[in-house]
Amino acid sequence: MHAAAMLAILGVMDSIRLDSHSRPIYFLADLHLDEKRPEAIAAFIQFLAGPAREASALFILGDLFEAWIGDDARPEHDPVAPALARLSQQGTAVYLMHGNRDFLLGERFATAASAELIEEPCLISIDSEPVLLEHGDALCVDDLAYQAFRQQVRDPAWQAEFLSLPIEARIRQAQDARVKSGEAMAGKTSEIMDVNAEAVVERLRAYDVRRLIHGHTHRPAVHTLMVDGEPATRIVLGDWFEQASILRVSNGDYSLRTINLGPTA
Ligand code: LP5
Ligand code: MN
After folding, report:
1. 133-156 residue pLDDT tens
2. What is the extent of the structural domain holding 32?
3. Contacts of 241 (CB under 8 A, 6+ apart)
4. Which of 17, 113, 119, 182 could form a disulfide with 81 if both were Cys (CB 3.0 to 4.6 A apart)?
5. Residue-wise pLDDT tens digits, 44-101
């Protein structure tokens, strides 16, 4: 057995086990919340106070925020953490995963949101089936420039140094990175910026799972594929720019849907 699969099985024994027959489970990603779009923040908070409450668990698989430069940099009046905390206190467990834009979300934010930060890839179990969760950027292995950038900014030593900078300097670097990333992306094909098919198969094989849920590519879809002669499913969550993309799992059924964010969005 693959070492990752063995560790994953050991890990899942005391990890998140869910049953979709009692209450639904929700998965979201790529909300890209930003003070520049207060209407999107308001719509998300409405969603947390309304539809999300039917779920036993809400998973946010990265890029909740457009950019996160450290838990200390967020204004005290930020309404997102308290809104998540209210949902959690009302009985929906909230799980947060890092994305490529908010990989610096830390325990201070998680505590304020009454949420649990989960590492990627994260193996959970739904209705006794192992399900693997990740943001999705790590699967885009053909995007060599991005992978080099990712390796740099996910390095704990780099992160400690970055977080020690004054907030103004961090804002400048983040803006610089976004501009450079935009320029770089203009020169990349859409194939390069999608997940690599072999990387997906290898991930499913390594964790001995036949279901993967991720975001990042903003290409919502349910893909079926074969892994070692067995059918497998890759569910890609969409973003929250025009509409809300939600994966709702209920009574064993996985339904990827878009909902209108309402008049405030
Ligand atoms: O998220 P999306 O879809 O826009 O783009 C990604 C990849 N880009 C990124 C970069 C982020 O958008 C930058 C914003 C991060 C905000 C948090 C800041 C925390 C501190 C960071 C400070 C350095 O993730 C893009 C992929 C695309 O997805 C599809 O997968 O292609 O990757 C790139 O474009 C990366 C470039 O190819 C190479 C790197 C350019 C940035 C260089 C920054 C240099 C550092 C400046 C400070 C010294
Ligand atoms: Mn992303």
Report:
1. 999 999 999 999 999 999 999 999
2. 3-260
3. 32, 40
4. 113
5. 999 999 999 999 999 999 999 999 999 999 876 689 999 999 999 999 999 999 999 9
Question: For residue 265, is it within any domain?
Answer: no
Q: Tell me, in angstroms, the distance from the centre of ligand 2 to residue 111's CA.
A: 23
CATH of the domain at 15: 3.60.21.10
Q: How far is the CA of 149 from the centre of ligand 1 (A)?
A: 7
Residue 217 C-alpha to ligand 2 middle, in angstroms? 7
With respect to residue 28, please indicate whether it lies within any of the assigned structural domains.
yes
